[in-house]
Specification:
This protein has 500 residues and is an alpha+beta fold. Helices cover 49% and strands 10% of the residues. The strands form two sheets. Strands 4-5-7-6 form a four-stranded antiparallel beta sheet. The chain has a three-stranded antiparallel beta sheet with strand order 1-3-2. Helix 18 packs antiparallel against helix 19. The C terminus is likely disordered.
């Protein structure tokens, strides 16, 4: 057995410094890895030797990539080429487009932990129009409100949590709580930044989608990303131009369906609604577990599961959970049950929910008619009326811009404004969300949404959903089911007792 480290991410500044010392090299490109790995299936030589040849003949490697990836259709080899991007000065609205892709990694500047400055994006669609002055004036009102709310919230938080305030080391934590609620008044035009890691196959898709976007900011972002990549790896990012599928499909869908929505209004807004689920979710999970544990076909396992008594069903599920800790994921068999939720949530909350990219998330545009999510702390400091006054002015500006430049209108909306999301996920993924987002350390808005999702799931599959909870409650819930704490917790806390 042999293992070679073929490559790893290196900061481009380091690469430039190395080039300055040793001269320019053609083989500093991820293309050689894609070309080498593409040849593995047909070249009998050891991989490390194939890779060495690819480094020596970069142009040949590039031609090989073009042939294998695009002419032969083996796009997966482009996934071996990885890029890291620093993306700065992009609006929160455009950042939602950048973070839309499943097979990427993102770390974004957090509005919860960093005091916002007054930087914001003026969309190209608005620049030079009569609406620009109104747009800028409204952003300034929002930013002024942010700093006013932040100071009052900071004072409120420090007084409410005097025990924590007594420790200077906790001051950043307390200020963070004030910032995360003050940001609800800031616009989606507010500038942000993100570190993004992406493979070449997904990058090509991203560039194509960006080129097809109706927003100039998103189009320009795609151009800038391509300018950085093309000199380094010209052979693995080819189909990047806008196409009819991405440009026309959704507009045509809206046009052909608009008559169906006339005079239909949603009077009562429900924040979290479980709209689709299997009637026998618990039995489906049990059937999948039986299939893995035994040697019978799935239909037979399903027949057995249908006849199981509750006690035996609990015994089987307990066997899957007994050796788990709060950080362990559910077994893969829990993916065989899907749940679909219709969720109405704030822009601030969507910024967190969209991170769960293994689920299927589609959404409508932000809509002032869906109301607001106002932090309770804003109400408790007596600033709700002021908050709503800023929102009313924001909505007036939105209405003016929406009449003439509808694609750019959402830039002026705030983190408190809401959109409607359709989210489909399997039970295993819901467990992951529950552990992370229902935890007491999670932000309150996403905590509320996650808890509501878990509550709905427990109604329709009470057995398989028994351990849905935040990681802070895991030991407590585990103890309720098993009568003792998890094994590792017992080792750390030897005095832990069983429930009497």
């Amino acid at each position: 057995m042999k293992v070679y480290l073929a490559g790893f991410n290196v900061d481009t500044t380091v690469l430039k410094e190395l080039e300055e010392k040793s001269g320019k090299r053609e083989d500093i490109t991820p293309e050689v890895l894609s070309a080498a790995y593409a040849r593995i299936s047909r070249d009998p030589r050891p991989i490390n030797e194939i890779r060495a040849d690819a480094r020596k003949e970069v142009e040949r490697s590039r031609k090989s990539n073009q042939t294998i990836i695009f002419k032969m259709g083996h796009h997966s080899v482009a996934e071996h080429a990885i890029f890291n991007f620093d993306i700065l000065g992009v609006s929160r609205l455009a950042m939602e487009e950048a973070e839309h892709f499943r097979l990427c990694s993102y770390t974004e500047k957090s509005q919860r932990y960093i005091t916002l400055d007054k930087d914001f994006v003026i969309p190209e669609e608005i620049k030079g129009t009569h609406e620009e002055a109104l747009f800028v004036k409204t952003i300034h009102l929002q930013n002024e409100a942010y700093f006013k709310l932040f100071e009052k919230l900071k004072d409120y938080v420090f007084k409410k949590h005097k025990d924590l305030a007594a420790d200077p080391k906790k001051h950043n934590l307390l200020e963070g709580w004030a910032k995360e609620d003050a940001r609800y008044i800031t616009a989606l035009a507010t500038e942000s930044q993100v570190g993004m890691t992406i493979n070449a196959r997904v990058l090509e898709l991203l560039l194509r989608r960006f080129a097809s976007s109706p927003l100039s900011e998103v189009k320009n972002l795609g151009k800038l990303i391509f300018e950085q990549v093309n000199p380094i790896a010209p052979s693995i990012v080819i189909f990047r131009e806008a196409n009819d599928r991405d440009v026309k499909t959704y507009p045509e869908l809206r046009e052909v369906t608009k008559d169906l929505f006339e005079k239909i209004y949603e009077k009562k807004i429900k924040e979290v609604e479980l709209v689709e689920y299997p009637e026998d979710g618990d039995k489906l999970i049990l059937s999948a577990l039986l299939h893995t544990a035994g040697n019978l076909p799935y239909k037979k396992c399903k027949s057995i599961a249908a006849k199981l008594r509750r006690k035996k069903s609990e015994e089987i599920l307990k066997a899957t959970w007994r050796n788990m800790q709060f950080y362990d994921s559910m077994l893969r068999e829990f993916e065989y049950v899907n749940l679909t939720f219709n969720i109405v949530l704030s822009a601030a909350c969507f910024g967190q929910l969209k991170r769960h990219r293994m689920s299927t998330i589609t959404s409508q545009s932000y809509d002032p008619n869906l109301g607001l999510t106002i932090p309770e702390s804003i109400k408790e400091i007596g600033m709700e009326k002021y908050f709503r006054e800023i929102i009313d002015k924001t909505n007036d500006t939105y209405a003016v811009i929406n009449k003439k430049i509808p694609f750019a209108a959402p830039y002026i909306l705030t983190n408190a404004h809401r959109k409607r999301v359709l989210m489909r996920l399997n039970l295993r993924e819901l467990y992951h969300i529950s552990r992370l987002r229902e935890d007491q350390h999670a932000q309150w808005d996403i905590q509320n949404i996650s808890a509501a999702m878990s509550k709905e799931a427990k109604k329709v599959m009470p057995l398989a959903s028994s351990l849905l909870c935040g990681k802070d409650k895991y030991n407590e819930d585990y103890q309720q089911i098993f009568g003792q704490l998890p094994a590792i917790t017992q080792a750390v806390l030897p005095g832990a007792r069983k429930i009497q």
